[in-house]
Fold this sequence. Notes:
Elements: H1 23-35, H2 39-44, H3 56-68, H4 79-91, H5 102-109, H6 117-145, H7 151-163, H8 177-189, H9 203-208, E1 218-223, H10 229-244, E2 248-252, H11 257-269, H12 273-278, H13 285-299, E3 303-306, H14 313-327, E4 331-335, H15 348-366, E5 369-375, H16 398-402, E6 405-410, E7 424-432, E8 438-445, E9 450-453
Parallel strand pairs: 1-5, 1-6, 2-3, 2-4, 4-5
Antiparallel strand pairs: 6-7, 7-8, 8-9
Helix pairs in contact: 1-3, 1-6, 3-4, 4-5, 6-7, 7-14, 10-11, 11-13, 14-15
Amino acid sequence: MSADLWDVPLDDQPANLSLPGDPEAERILVATAMARPVIVDELAMTGFDPADITDDRYRWVWFAVEHLAASFRDGEIRYLAVDRQLQAWRADGRIASVPLTEQQLSELYNYAQPGSEGWYAERIATKAAAARTITHGHNAILRGKSAAFDPDEDVAALQTELDGVIRAAVTDETSLLADLLPDVLERAITPPTNEDRIPTGFIDLDHLLCGGWAPGQLVVVGARPAMGKSTIGVGFARAAAIANGIPTLFESLEMSKAELGNGIVSAEAQVALHHIKQGIVGEDAPATQRMARAAQKMNAAPLRISDCANLSMPALRARVRNLVRTAGLRLVVVDYLQLMQAPAAESRQVAVSALSRGLKLLAKEFGITVIVLAQLNRGPEQRTEKKPMVSDLRESGAIEQDADIVILLHREDAYEKESPRAGEADLIVGKHRGGPTSTITTAFQGHYARFVDMAQT
């Protein structure tokens, strides 16, 4: 066998980078796959990715074995069958490079070592992780040297890339029904606590949602402008962090920290918001005393507020990752979806779809609740009945698809000042995955920048 058979330079390496690899392990592993095709599925369950095979010729042999395994259910796949498959793909233009010849495949077959495939796959995966680390470092240098370097955007993107250096192993996550029953029965007789759920701040809404927001949920709160969606979003954050001590992050792309602070103090102390803005609260002694009492509770609240105007998905993910690790973050409120920095896409709809999908994956990955406020289109204003519908979510049906819960905020007095329902607000639960939908009526106290249960009015 000629030495140059295995020493052809690879064309997949980044320019000017010498990346580590293990040609011997790749050769043995691919040969073993020919001799024992079942390892293709076995190694897939451990998280092995054939993309980690650096030699393009070996990688195509692996794909050929994977393709042929459906026809050769028992025993080995001889090099002749692999050669025919490679030549067919080559003729179809699927393989751009020159695959191994029949003679080379015959020689490769002799390297098979059944029983050792796991060890060689681990060697390949280790080298691939090292290569990704080097590539990541190279990208970090390029970003750092760029005149357009943006600390918020670039550092967040690099952190996301770094997360992908080590690929998580795939495990068998199936369970027998019998194994699930004890937990189901336990849940059936044990009411949820704040350790399981996050209170919404509204008694009837908590009841509808079986105790409040659940980990891994994406909640979308939609409303037309001036309905109070920022106020309701802050209310959800206050209920979690101030009332129940649950670590919460509020991301505001519309209002400043100062404006949010004014609203929170107004709501908690029941001090008129316009008095706080005018600086005349000191003339009202009872109001000053209420603010002092409320400050004690607010000082201890694990509520973090950000008013970054150009929030991107990578930046949010980096912040969430850090706060989950350092502060036990459980709830994120984003105000609002359409103002987030969208990724490059062929249309605005596709970009917003990517954002909503990213928020859902964020909730699942970190086991937190993500509440995102969203603007509705003009549908409600064009109908005689002004109540919004889930289909009014602006720019993307994917928002409805990704959401576990969709709540639509509606106030009749926003359209009709003399409405007999002035001061009332409806929380229309239009989608509730795995649960009932309903309309919860609350009281809107705009002068205190808050929504409250009707019983509190």
